[in-house]
Every structure is written in structure tokens, then in C-alpha cells.
Specification:
alpha/beta, Quinone Oxidoreductase, Chain A, domain 1, Rossmann fold, 2 domains, 7-stranded mixed β-sheet, 6-stranded parallel β-sheet, 30% helix, NADP-dependent oxidoreductase, NADP, Zinc-ADH_QOR/CCCR, ER
Length: 310
């Protein structure tokens, strides 16, 4: 019988409990996937806690999870490009499970040399990073400041921007400065005094700012960006965005209503083919211990992606 981890009530990590599920059947444009690994994201524990119950209620009991890597188990009647046995990764709801169904437009074939854990940790961060750069219209030759460059989304935003020919300055903890430098960014230490440190390494200023940190940086960022508030975007702080007149982007559809998951995965795969893709992954946690993964994530301080393994 397929298994999953779900919660029947909002609360702490302890509400996550193993449960059985029915075998899902794919629609014509879907495939059923035997999940081998699932990514863990901040939205997972924010939904579980009930903190977003007013804005983003879920039907209880709810199986968390938004991204995965696994093996195609069955295909819908309209699917011709995939077949059972294919290794895939992508975005889908209810990923904390041993079986799920996914839209073919939101997944890609997994190369044999991209391991399942890194693949499972890519889709959500890749989509967010790709969407943010698109909405900021970041171009070659510009300078982009990324707050939280050491995190999962910031890490990919740095790589995607560098691939565009953009000069990147990234705020992050000193322990990840070497990694950021290796990716082609100029790292600066986050915290008090960061605007002065950014000006020191980018004396001509920055053209745009992407905030993935939610660390009360938007006011100074709007003053720092040559494009002003219009070229400052946060993925993490909607209330501060409104207060400072900067942009907030949430969800896979973005401002334009486009789902950028497919193009984002294509960008990640292009970097992988070049041998430059870096996806730090924390030691995988068994699916049955999803509560432990949530505790690790909520504690903060991780510089690597949390992934569950089945």
C-alpha cells in the first residue's frame, strides 16, 4: 500500500504522521511517479503550523510537499514523451508520499549523473529564482544584489544570473563566501553595515536587488538600487514590500500568470550539462521522520537543502 506523511490538524512538527493513501490515477496529461526523494521547503512548515491558514488554507488531512524526484510508474492516455521506468524530477503537490501524480509540463527527465536528492531539491528554488530574475528583467552587464545568497533560492539566483552575464553581489554568512565566490559572485557579510560593504565592492552601485532573506533589508535596498523601488523584489517579506513600495512575488505563476517551472528546470539542466550546477544538500532524512526535517528547517542556519528519502 502506498504511504505518505500528513497532518490532520495545524500545529508543531509532531502533527506530521505516517498514513496510507490510495493509488492515484494520472489524468491524460499526467504521469504517476514512484517517489524516491522529496524536497522540504519553508512553505511546508508555514502551512503546517497554521501561520498561513487565513491566506492559504489547506484541506485537512493534508500531505505536504511541492517537489520530488522519482521513477515514472504509469502514464496518462495523452502522454507520449514519457514511459514507465523513466527517471524524472519536478513540481507536484502532495510530494511527501511514495506515489504521486504530476503534470508533464512541470517535470523533466533526470540525467543519470544528477542524483535524486539534488534533483528533488531543485524545482521550487529554481522556479522562484528564475521567476524573480525575469520579473526584475535582470540583463547581461548589470549588477544584481542578492540578499540571502547562501540559501537554496539565493544559491540558484546567483547561478542563473551569472549565466545571463550579470555581475552578482551576494549577502551571506561568511561560512559560504568561498562557495559564492566559486559560483562567480562577490560575497559580502550580511547584517548591520551591509549597505556600506556592498558599496565598497560595487562602487558604481547596483541596478537591481533580489531579497530571498526576509531580513528587513528592503528600505536600504530601494535606496541603493539605481532603478529605485521598481527594481527591488522580495520573495520573503510581503508586508515590508508594501511598506517600502517594492515588489513582492509569490507562487509559481508569478505576476504574468505564467508557470515558469519548465523553463527554470531547463536552465538548471543547462548548468548541469556544463558541469557548473551546485545544489548543496543536507543529509537526507527518511520520509517517516519528516517531523525531524521540519524541526531542522525551522531552527534555521542551514546552508543546504533539506530532502526526504523514501
Amino acid at each position: 500500500m502506498p504511504e505518505a506523511v500528513a497532518y490532520a490538524t495545524y500545529g508543531g512538527p509532531e502533527v506530521l504522521q505516517p498514513t496510507g493513501i490510495d493509488i492515484p490515477e494520472p489524468d491524460p496529461d499526467q504521469v504517476r511517479v514512484a517517489v524516491r526523494a522529496a524536497g522540504v521547503n519553508p512553505l511546508d512548515w508555514k502551512l503546517r503550523s497554521g501561520a498561513l491558514s487565513a491566506a492559504m488554507p489547506v484541506t485537512l488531512p493534508h500531505i505536504p510537499g511541492l517537489e520530488f524526484a522519482g521513477t515514472v510508474d504509469a502514464v496518462g492516455d495523452g502522454v507520449s514523451a514519457l514511459e514507465p521506468g523513466d527517471e524524472v524530477f519536478g513540481r507536484a503537490s502532495y510530494a511527501y508520499a511514495t506515489l504521486l501524480v504530476a503534470d508533464t509540463a512541470r517535470l523533466r527527465l533526470r540525467p543519470h549523473d544528477l542524483d535524486v536528492h539534488r534533483a528533488a531539491g531543485l524545482p521550487v528554488a529554481a522556479e522562484a529564482a528564475y521567476r524573480a530574475l525575469d520579473e526584475l528583467a535582470v540583463a547581461a552587464g548589470e549588477t544584481l544584489l542578492v540578499h540571502g545568497a547562501g540559501g537554496a533560492v539565493g544559491n540558484l539566483a546567483v547561478q542563473f544570473a551569472v549565466a545571463r552575464g550579470t555581475h552578482v553581489v551576494g549577502t551571506a554568512a561568511e561560512r559560504v563566501h568561498r562557495r559564492l565566490a566559486d559560483l562567480g559572485a562577490t560575497p559580502v557579510t550580511y547584517g548591520d553595515g551591509w549597505p556600506e560593504r556592498v558599496r565598497a565592492v560595487a562602487p558604481r552601485g547596483v541596478d537591481a536587488v533580489l531579497d530571498t532573506s526576509g531580513a528587513d533589508v528592503l528600505g536600504d535596498s530601494a535606496r541603493l538600487a539605481s532603478g529605485g523601488a521598481a527594481r527591488v523584489l522580495t520573495l520573503a517579506d510581503p508586508q515590508a514590500a508594501q511598506a517600502h513600495g517594492v515588489r513582492f512575488s509569490a507562487g509559481s505563476a508569478g505576476e504574468s500568470g505564467l508557470d515558469r517551472t519548465g523553463p527554470a528546470l531547463d536552465q538548471a539542466l543547462a548548468l548541469h550539462r556544463r558541469g557548473t550546477l551546485v545544489v548543496p544538500v543536507h543529509e537526507p532524512v527518511p520520509l517517516a521522520e519528516a517531523a525531524r526535517a521540519h524541526r531542522l528547517g525551522e531552527a534555521g542556519g542551514l546552508d543546504a537543502k533539506l530532502v526526504l528519502t523514501t
